[in-house]
């Protein structure tokens, strides 16, 4: 049985390549894995498709990859706090797919749950419905929103055990547990990594089988 | 009273004891300051918790509001992931959402997430909130900075959601959608019906009970 999930931060590099898709946990940087993002930046990979709630600020969270022009496409709910994303979008340097936040969460949940998509009333009667199938049940219109997956998910947890079981802290949970299901390789940066059994099983928020690699953040 | 405080004060009167409320960034965050002492609401923050409170003392790690700013939490707070957060929002478990608007129209349509060619921040959680909350209260200044109407016959900007607005609070007036019709129910202190008419492009009716706002 393979139990050694903890790796050095630099060992993430063999899972990185140009043109890959990356889901990143976090909400305006809170709950984003800073160390892994720095490693991706240092690795120099480009033409990335990034998927996450927002592009944070130009010098915060995932925003640093946008600022360094490593991103080809972003699928997100909000870019308003990162003027660089907006500038690159208007200049035609980056493609931005804006998705309502709740729809983004469900598309990712579906991608990791064996579901092809979800029906949501959000976006009906707006630009969001363009090009999408609309279905009506009991007099309510719904959009068909398709599942999302990625090559890699990069997540932030507060505590991990060596099996990969995760506990998040406060508002840093956000998209992290959903993305843990929805990528081919899941790398987690944790504030601390403890022995199996040290996390109360009732308090595990993401089961360890979903996690491929653990990196100690050194933060607390 | 300045415009923002007046609007916040009036919207506070719409909230009932026990309500679960999501407040947008900016003006709506002033609303809790104006709640009567016997009205206790639970604030939902779409980044993943119920029980948001004002920041008291030093910020705690990983405790931020949906604007990314450090905030507080009340005893009994619950944190959850974004799917749960939006299940709560879309599923009708939020009693009221209060958010700003660029334009609102007489059909209850709201536009507040982009200005084509100028400002495209994205919708964030606004489309889900406006779609799913039981009450959608738009809290905004009555006119644009150059005096243009924001309450229109038909929104010109891309919509956030269609036909979901339940009330509009401005520094001049309070409107409610009643049976699908936009109704002026209150005027701000010292504001005439003529002034409101002049600054509103939408068709609306004046309630027979229309009266001056009672502000604390």
UniProtKB/TrEMBL annotation, chain A:
Protein name per its UniProtKB record: Acetate CoA/acetoacetate CoA-transferase alpha subunit
Organism taxonomic ancestry: Bacteria, Pseudomonadati, Pseudomonadota, Betaproteobacteria, Rhodocyclales
PROSITE patterns in UniProt: COA_TRANSF_1
Family the entry assigns: Belongs to the 3-oxoacid CoA-transferase subunit A family.
One function term, GO molecular function aspect: CoA-transferase activity
A Pfam family hit: CoA_trans
UniProt-listed InterPro entries: 3-oxoacid_CoA-transf_A, CoA_trans_fam_I, CoA_transf_BS, NagB/RpiA_transferase-like
Keyword field: Transferase
Domain of life: Bacteria
TrEMBL record, chain B:
SUPFAM superfamilies: NagB/RpiA/CoA transferase-like
GO molecular function, one term: CoA-transferase activity
PROSITE patterns, A to Z: COA_TRANSF_2
InterPro entries hit by this protein: 3-oxoacid_CoA-transf_B (IPR012791), CoA_trans_fam_I (IPR004165), CoA_transf_AS (IPR004164), NagB/RpiA_transferase-like (IPR037171)
Keywords: Transferase
Domain of life (superkingdom): Bacteria
Keyword hit for Metal-binding: no
Pfam families, per the entry: CoA_trans (PF01144)
Gene3D superfamilies: Glutaconate Coenzyme A-transferase
Family: Belongs to the 3-oxoacid CoA-transferase subunit B family.
Name by which UniProt lists this protein: Acetate CoA/acetoacetate CoA-transferase beta subunit
């Amino acid at each position: 049985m393979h139990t050694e999930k903890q790796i050095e931060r630099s060992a993430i590099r063999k899972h990185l390549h140009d043109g890959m898709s990356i889901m990143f946990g976090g909400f305006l940087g809170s709950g984003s894995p800073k160390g892994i993002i720095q490693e991706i930046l240092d690795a120099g990979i480009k033409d990335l498709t990034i998927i996450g709630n927002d592009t944070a600020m130009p010098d915060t969270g995932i925003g640093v990859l946008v600022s360094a022009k490593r991103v080809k496409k972003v699928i997100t709910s909000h870019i308003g706090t990162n003027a660089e994303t907006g500038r690159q979008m208007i200049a035609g340097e980056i493609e931005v797919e804006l998705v309502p936040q709740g729809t983004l969460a469900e598309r990712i949940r579906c991608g990791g749950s064996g579901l092809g998509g979800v029906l949501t009333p959000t976006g009906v009667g707006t630009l969001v419905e363009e090009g999408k199938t609309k279905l009506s049940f009991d007099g309510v219109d719904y959009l068909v929103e398709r599942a999302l997956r990625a090559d890699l998910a990069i997540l932030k947890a507060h505590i991990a055990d060596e099996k990969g079981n995760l506990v998040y802290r406060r508002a840093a949970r956000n998209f992290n547990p959903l993305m843990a299901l929805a990528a081919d390789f899941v790398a987690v940066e944790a504030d601390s990594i403890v022995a199996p059994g040290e996390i109360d099983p009732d308090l595990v928020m993401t089961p360890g089988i979903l996690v491929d690699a653990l990196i100690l953040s050194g933060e607390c | 009273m300045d415009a923002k405080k007046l609007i916040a004060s009036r919207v506070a009167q719409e909230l009932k004891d026990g309500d679960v409320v999501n407040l947008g960034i900016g003006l709506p965050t002033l609303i809790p300051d104006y709640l009567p002492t016997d009205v206790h609401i639970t604030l939902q923050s779409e980044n993943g918790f119920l029980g948001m409170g004002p920041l008291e003392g030093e910020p705690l790690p990983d405790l931020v509001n949906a604007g990314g700013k450090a905030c507080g939490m009340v005893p009994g707070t619950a944190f959850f992931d974004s799917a749960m957060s939006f299940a709560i929002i879309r599923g009708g478990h939020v009693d009221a959402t209060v958010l700003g608007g660029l334009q609102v129209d007489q059909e209850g349509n709201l536009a507040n997430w982009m200005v084509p060619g100028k400002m495209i921040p994205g919708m964030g959680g606004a489309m889900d909130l406006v779609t799913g909350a039981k009450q959608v209260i738009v809290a905004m200044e009555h006119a644009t900075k150059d005096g243009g109407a924001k309450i229109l016959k038909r929104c010109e900007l891309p919509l956030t959601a269609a036909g979901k607005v339940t009330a509009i609070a401005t520094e001049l007036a309070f409107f409610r959608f009643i049976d699908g019709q936009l109704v002026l129910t209150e005027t701000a202190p010292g504001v005439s019906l003529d002034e409101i008419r002049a600054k509103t492009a939408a068709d609306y009716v004046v309630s027979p009970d229309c009266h001056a706002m009672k502000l604390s």
